[in-house]
Amino acid sequence: MREFVIPLQLINLQGDGFHLLVEVVVYGQNFQAVLDTGASKSAFDKEIIESLAVDDIIYMPDQHAIGLGTTTMERYVAHFPELEIGNLIIQDYEAPVFDLSAVKYAYEQLNLPPVIGVIGGDILMDYHAKIDYESLTLVLKGAN
After folding, report:
1. What's any GO biological process attached to this entry (predicted)?
2. pTM for the full predicted model
3. What is the CATH number of the domain that holds 17?
């Protein structure tokens, strides 16, 4: 398996902890995403994804998501022909999309760069993630 060493950015939440950001490419555009080991699945902001690819969002009326600070919420899923994290390219990836306006607002209030979503446990587990805080790198292992 090939190793992909991906740079991370450490964001200080002004006395309220830290977040790690990783650059991702979605629909050919660069964004920052929060690297979240506590998230069971990666998820993206519905408003941003709709602005990029309205046709790739599917409403899942019989499924609700749990987490992100609420008990349940409507669930939408987006199809990404390609999701790039560093040099790793994940083909035909599906992920939930939610209203992440509260997260975006919190970042804005701290004068931090906006984020498109979170990279969570699904990708971190599937690609054997190793996070190195000292060198601020994420190592993923994959076939491409």
Report:
1. proteolysis
2. 0.86
3. 2.40.70.10
